[in-house]
Amino acid sequence: MASTQCVVVLFLITFTSTAFPRSILETSPKTHHSFTFNPISIRRKIPNDGDAFYCDSWRLSDGNAFYCESWRLSVETDNAGSWTQIPASCLDFVEEYATGDHYSSDLEVFAENALEFAKEVNVSSIHGKDAWVFDIDETLLSNVGYYEFYGFGYYDVDALNEWVESAVDPALPASLELYKELQNMGFKLILLTGRSESLRNATEKNLLQAGYSNWETLILR
Ligand SMILES: *[C@@H]1O[C@H](CO)[C@@H](O)[C@H](O)[C@H]1NC(C)=O
Ligand SMILES: *[C@@H]1O[C@H](CO)[C@@H](O)[C@H](O)[C@H]1NC(C)=O
């Protein structure tokens, strides 16, 4: 690392990384018998009229959506502070956001912005900034299956760890694409996660299965 000229660029997905953990309304989980879920919903193609999603922050249609979008913005800007529950009236909004096309559209836009930035960096210059830091959950890998499994109304750290152990999270497609592009550009990719060290093997396994490889280092808590 000593030779690595680096100041780090954080690629953060603010809404999902702050809104999902520790914040889902705690209600009883739906009864299921095993961790089986279908990740297809988050791999759905973004439709060609993607501009509608792009502009969505500026325009909303129905009444409750205004409230939920305001709440979302408040979380993103950290104005909501250490809140613990998604408003019950917004559970559907969160589900719709995460499993519909909106989340993947947001990710596409973030990845595009990040790539534009990356192109401005001269990685091969002796003064180049050649390290790039990625978070993992809701940045490289999607835990949406976990939240879907619990009906978007339940968060429990033990259950989430158990989920992570099963190493079934799919890649977020836009992030995987960005990851590979950055790698081709010569960036050294550093993965920094709040996951515990005890989840290293499961995390590595999941990352590899999802298509990520050749990271410089993986730092767990
Ligand atoms: C990038 O840096 C290298 C080494 O300093 C230099 O030779 C090259 O011209 C630079 N490229 C650009 C596009 O500035
Ligand atoms: C991780 O895997 C290595 C071998 O691949 C093994 O030696 C080690 O005990 C495993 N760690 C945990 C926490 O399971």
UniProtKB/TrEMBL annotation:
Protein known as: Acid phosphatase
Native source species: Ilex paraguariensis
One Pfam family hit: Acid_phosphat_B
Keywords noted in UniProt: Signal
Gene3D superfamilies: HAD superfamily/HAD-like (3.40.50.1000)
InterPro entries: Acid_phosphat_B-like, HAD-like_sf, HAD_sf
Cleaved signal peptide residues: 1-18
Keyword Signal: yes
